[in-house]
Amino acid sequence: MQPSVIILLGAPGAGKGTQAVRLAAARGLPHVSTGDLFRENLKQETALGKQAKGYMDSGKLVPDELVLDMLFARVARPDCAHGYVLDGFPRTLPQAEAFARRLGRIAPVAVNIVVRDATIVERAAGRLTCKACGNVQHLRHAPPRVAGKCDRCAGELVQRADDAPHVVTERLRVYHEQTAPLVGYYARAGALRELDGEQSPDAVFHALTSVLPPQEAGITPRL
Length: 223
Fold this sequence. Notes:
CATH class of the domain at 4-118 and 178-216: Alpha Beta
Number of strands: 8
Helix content: 40-55%
CATH architecture of the domain at 4-118 and 178-216: 3-Layer(aba) Sandwich
CATH superfamily of the domain at 4-118 and 178-216: P-loop containing nucleotide triphosphate hydrolases
Structural class: alpha/beta
Strand content: 15-25%
Order of helices and strands: EHEHHHEHEHEEEHHEH
Largest sheet: 5 strands, parallel
Radius of gyration: 17 Å
Number of helices: 9
Shape: globular
Strand order of the largest sheet: 2-3-1-4-8
């Protein structure tokens, strides 16, 4: 059986990361996030990490040459042998084309989570990230039990620089210009599914599992 590659698409802040974690657990597949790869390189203060930080903090897309090697090294690990859930990549048509060449005969499934720009700006304004473990909470939708403290590890919760409204607006502009065309790319390939991302997280997850039949998971789900 071919590995199952599921790509989650959507604007920054549409909920791709949240749904990717849930989907990966339900399908028994690793969750591969380019955001996590960036954070790993940032934490280790690698040369790539330092370059990527400048783009991420200003709300711009990280250039392909800073992404591809990290990503392909990750999906070559044994835990991705049966497939994986990917979010945050590809972000441009050249990235999608390069990724397709590396996949060869493996046919990915792309799911577009549709959310309005105004909703994304509101979500970002209340988002808090733990400085210690990276856990994300929200003042309105997932408020911390103790103000300013992460529910997972009690670390300090802060608003990331790239969650500021003016940065989010710039990220959305870049998304519509450079990333949104991927919807058409995967639609033309017959690989696209779409769903309403403005529902509750549980409703979005239900819709997500509905557009991905069990046989597309590739392996037995974790219990």
